[in-house]
Amino acid sequence: MAERTRVVVTDANVLINLIHVGRLDILVRLPDLGFVVPPEVEAEVAVPEQAAVLKRALDTGDLGRQAFTGTEELGIYAELVQVLGKGESACLAMAEVRGWLIASDERRRFLRLAKERLGPGRVLNTVGVFLLAIRAGLVTVEEADRDKATLEGHRFKMKFASFRDVLGSCA
Q1: Backbone angles phi, psi at 23, to 5 degrees
Q2: Structural domains of the chain, ranges and CATH numbers in brackets
Q3: Do 34 and 7 touch, CB atoms closer than 8 A?
Q4: Helix locations, 67-162, DSSP H
Q5: Which of the 8 DSSP states describes residue 8?
Q6: Does the reported pTM lie above 0.85?
């Protein structure tokens, strides 16, 4: 993985969504962001075809593998895994200790804990990844809307009709 300005530790749900639509490469191409995956998250990608796509991206170095490096992360992980899944706990522990961003579509308890521990603006979700990709010229709004329809067929609902609507409200 090339050196990037900001590191984003990535949860399984974002990876799986991008794999569903054949767009995992967006994570490699987004400017100034480097995406890493903890082993706990890699283990959560259980569908063999999806796991193979992720493994290929990790083996080629397009996405980085990142394990815990110290007792502080392990301690936070041990605390968080009591109330969150293993992947979410690993991501949050790493982001807290290292000052990284998190890519996750988790809500409720996870988002509350992420805001408490990291502060605002440190969680990037699938919609946010697509918005960054559109703004960077990596995908068109029309392509993103087609991917949105595909994801909705996989039960990942978005509360807007078109990415154009979201881009207009964020401009």
Answers
A1: -125, 25
A2: 6-124 (3.40.50.1010)
A3: yes
A4: 71-80, 86-98, 108-118, 126-135, 141-153
A5: E
A6: yes
Q: CA–CA separation, 16 vs 155, rounded Å?
A: 12
The encoded tokens of residue 164 equal 């154009």
Tens-of-pLDDT digits for all 171 residues of the chain?
A: 445 689 999 999 999 999 999 999 999 999 999 999 999 999 999 999 999 999 999 999 999 999 998 899 999 999 999 999 999 999 999 999 999 999 999 989 999 999 999 999 999 999 999 999 999 999 999 999 999 999 999 989 999 999 999 987 654
Q: What single-letter DSSP state applies at residue 121? A: T
Q: Tell me the C-alpha distance between 13 and 80, whole Å.
A: 18
DSSP structural state of residue 7: E
Nearest CA to 10 among 108, 77, 100? Answer: 100
User: To which H or E segment does residue 163 belong?
Assistant: helix 163-170
Q: Is 3 exposed, middle or buried (0-12, 13-18, 19+ CB in 10 A)?
A: exposed
Q: From edge to edge, which strands make up the β-sheet containing 101-103?
A: 64-65, 33-37, 6-10, 101-103, 123-124
End-to-end Cα spacing for the chain:
31
